[in-house]
Fold each of these.
Amino acid sequence: MQQAQTIPHDALVVGVDVGGTKIAAGVVDTQGNVHGRIKITTDTSTPERTLSSIAQGVRSAVQATGVTMEQVHAVGLGIPGMVDPAQGICQISVNLGWQNVEVRSWLERELQLPCAIENDVSAAALGESIYGVSKGLDNMVYLSLGTGIATRAIINGKLYRGAHGMAGEIGHASFNPTGPLCRCGGRGCLEALAAGPALALRAQDELRSGKSSLLRDLIGKQPLENLRSEDVFEAARKGDALATKILREAGQYLAYGIYLLSMSLDPQIVIIGGGLAVEGSPLIEAIHEGVTRWLENSPIFREMSGLNLLRLSSLQHDAGITGAAALITSAH
Ligand SMILES: [Zn+2]
């Protein structure tokens, strides 16, 4: 099935944000409004079952919106991994356990609708650039900060994919060659230093080594492995020195990443999205502090960017859904 060349002015498109644990989907209208948002658990037991959960997510979103499948024009999907949009294939997804899965042809057969696929962070960047805080800006960097870390850039109004669609995988660039092991096999990756699970692991290690902290009260009698990044945030909010130190260090690594991306790509803004992009969070404050330090240290960075460089995502979780839908509706 070929993607339709012309899109009706009242076209409805289903946008799907496929995650390793949850699939979020919604019906997106031409204004970028999301209707019938649903979230279901991803069945990753086999690629076929994962594809079936995606198809189920699409049908549930359509049903929740109160429209029929016949009223839907197409389906756009953001996939966590390396994706070939032209072939409709996901070459590799660690989160889904996929290797060379023919996503588009399977779903088009199942749903009888044209489908388009892209990397999930690329889709979210597209969503932000078309409907979010960078609407109307031609150059921006989107930083997804959650259980993983990745960035994607819009350059001169277009999503910059690079040779493999992976341009912006700074989460797996090493910021400390002697740092902790990353799930990718590398050492000291930005993701292993500053993503949610890394913050929790770091706090667990510090507590194991006998450091005193409010975190001990928060965790109570539970095993240390139950400690989450949310606990580190809560302790930092209450003024705990250890939690504050952990977040400040992570913020400095992230700020250095933002500084390098800004110097290389000269974006108008850098948008922070993903699960940890929460207004007033101590991690976001630490990133601001780190970027402020780079602005003070680097006259050229200061000339190029100001304190307004950083923005929080305005779309939050809808960035992935609207961006996936925009794969169909925009000339990205
Ligand atoms: Zn890595």
Amino acid sequence: MPVYNRIDEDIITALKAVVGDKYVLTDPERLAPYEKDESANTACYRQPEAVVLPARTEEVAAIMRLANNRKFPVIPRGAGTGLEAGAIVNEYGGIVLSLERMNAILEINEENLYAVVEPGVITARLQAEAEKKGLLYAGDPCSGGSCFIGGNAATNAGGNRAVKYGTTRDQIYAVEVVTPGGDIVELGGRVKKMTTGYALEKVIIGSEGTLGIITKLTLKLVPLPLHSAHILAVFEDADKALFTVNALQRARVEVTCLEFMDNECIRVAERFTGEKQVGSERGNYIIIQVDGKSEDETDDVCVTVDEICRAQGAAEVFIGNAEKIWYSRKIFSEASGAEGVVAMEDFVVPPDCIAVLLRELQVIRKDAGLAFRSVSHAGDGNIHLDVLKERLSQEVWEERLGAFESAAYDVVYRLGGKISGEHGIGGLRKDIMKRYTSPVELQLMKALKKAWDPNLILNPGKIFDVD
Ligand SMILES: Cc1cc2nc3c(=O)[nH]c(=O)nc-3n(C[C@H](O)[C@H](O)[C@H](O)COP(=O)(O)OP(=O)(O)OC[C@H]3O[C@@H](n4cnc5c(N)ncnc54)[C@H](O)[C@@H]3O)c2cc1C
């Protein structure tokens, strides 16, 4: 890795000349919110040397040119809800470039079903504005109330509706990007098809702020579904609950959301809210949303889903109001955070393998002497584990966690999966990325990074280290 310069008074003056004095932060108190994200591993939190808040693409480009001239790292940041320390500085230091002031919804085009937005727009705000016009922005991470669209693109966020609509990458027509060298380029286009050279917009999406800074996005919108129904099936056996994914697939039932919560997660929600959750004694949840063009069509699908869930062993199946059905799932992240999780996993396997994965993880966990709770975007084959330290000493915890993770990664890859379905690699999972990615694939990624960012200015030391 190159040797970087510290942020001296000269650089601060030059940054102020670009964005204005008010938008360059150096006071430690004002830097504090930018030293962390939502990762459970607080050991990686680190104060940036400065935070810069540009308001226009040209300012972002000028900052990148300055950073190349003066050789200091730039770490792009959205809302800081990431879980892998992608938006915080590491041992290389540098500035955080926050996109929070670039937060305009520039256009919602009802006739042609698209929106143009700046990267600092909160995802739920776009969803709400689109909804007012009878449209749906289908990207829907559980953090939607606070994360930014730009951050969603940079991490290729998934979420609840990915099973039907795909991840953030599938919602994007085009992105305006500031390259690491400070050029401005539009990648992709508002077209249904395109074989005009490499699809670089697809490469930028999910690159976790290492290849370019996303400064504008043209997003797909779809008509709001006319009718939706929400189903909660309670299973005593978690395995059987997850095998429902296979049964629904076999029956060709098209679902919009297909989520799983194990019993411990339901209890966490119960402890947090103080309200009794249905089936909390022994139950595990499958939560399903189906959409249809008419009430009759939706009802018919519900009947099929009900039959399938019961045939799979559901003790109870409720069809009802979205708020009630989704309540514990929506509250879970906050509830879990309040109990202090120490390690999180984001495994993804082919959806038909999700039940087998959980079964094998349970065996590994017992062997390692650890406990976990799991929620899953089950329809996407994506499972999140909160691995619990409980009363273990730090030394024993680290040893057991290491043993558990190694065995778990082996199973994930044997089933054809990957270590991250949606949270990314960031600064925290580089070693695992290196261990489980083919050397050829890793070399291709590094070559891409070096070609786009020869001075390694943009978010260095994230995803992988460049030799
Ligand atoms: C409670 C909770 C629930 C969550 N649920 C989900 C979920 O359901 N699905 C899911 O996928 N994730 C989920 N996440 C993780 C997180 O919210 C997503 O990764 C989200 O997309 C991050 O957006 P952000 O704006 O907070 O980005 P940040 O955390 O600020 O940044 C994340 C990464 O993107 C880069 N970046 C940010 N903005 C830009 C930009 N404009 N240009 C270039 N690079 C940029 C940063 O450098 C960093 O590497 C959840 C997190 C929490 C805390």
